[in-house]
Amino acid sequence: MAKRDGQPEITVIEFGVASGRGIVVMERYACAVEQSTGTKISVIGFDSGVGLPPFIGDYRDHPDLWKPGDYRFDISVVEAQIDQSRTRIIVGDVRETVPAFLQSGDFAPIGFASFDLDIYSSTIAALQILKDERRRILRHTPLYFDDIDFIVNNRWAGELLAIDEFNQKCEDVKIDKWYGIHTDKPFPEAHFWNKMMVAHDLIAISNYRSLHNF
């Protein structure tokens, strides 16, 4: 997708680093994909640094599943496992770190983002990275949402509610399921395919069409 958009470099993001296992794997695959495609890939992790926040609220945050302090994060342990020339960790409340990140403009267009913040209130704050007018994303940006396929998940709480509200309030970008993602995959039965979605930048799509006289 980056090549189709004419982007020589992208950023991939993990919201919710916790033990660091995910971002270590992401970095490994970033290296492999970069070597295979020639597209440079930077990796960024966002984490509060203190586990789930103390402001877990009503049913929307699933207090039946999570409690403050779950998934505590030790940045020294994680940084010992990553290549800091490629990967950086941003520590703090996403309600503050995401706006600051966007304001800095210090990143290549986002080509993938994984959302594993568990609760609705943190997820809706993190989704600002796709909604803000300062956003930099591909026309079609793959997303992964970790907590959407458990028996307790529903459209009135958690990540699913955050996605629905995002789509209701954002006119320029819409998040939808990745249709046909199981097709032509080595392991089409893998459960994680069901957690993949795509952010479609409707403005960028329209501009691309006009620029190419379609």
Folded structure, characterized:
The protein has 214 residues and is α/β, with parallel strands linked by helices. It contains 7 helices and 7 strands, in the order βαβαβαβααβαββα. Helix 1 (21-37) links the parallel strand 1 (9-15) and strand 2. Helix 4 packs parallel to helix 6 (158-169). The chain is globular.
What percent of residues are in strands?
15-25%
Low-confidence stretches: none
Mean pLDDT: 93
CATH class: Alpha Beta
Number of strands: 7
**If you compute it from the alpha carbons, what radius of gyration comes out, rounded to the nearest whole angstrom?**
17 Å
Distance between the termini: 19 Å
What can be said about the biggest beta sheet?
Answer: 7 strands, mixed
Helix/strand order, N-terminal first: EHEHEHEHHEHEEH
| Order of strands, widest sheet | 3-2-1-4-5-7-6
Number of domains: 1
User: What is the tally of helical segments?
Assistant: 7
Tell me the CATH superfamily. Vaccinia Virus protein VP39
CATH topology: Rossmann fold
User: Which class best fits the helix and strand makeup?
Assistant: alpha/beta
CATH 2nd-level architecture: 3-Layer(aba) Sandwich
Anisotropy-based shape: globular
What is the helix content? 25-40%
Task: Please provide a brief summary of the model.
The chain is of the alpha/beta class and 214 residues long. It has helices at residues 21-37, 75-79, 94-104, 120-126, 128-131, 158-169, 202-211, and strands at 9-15, 40-47, 87-91, 110-115, 140-145, 173-177, 196-201.
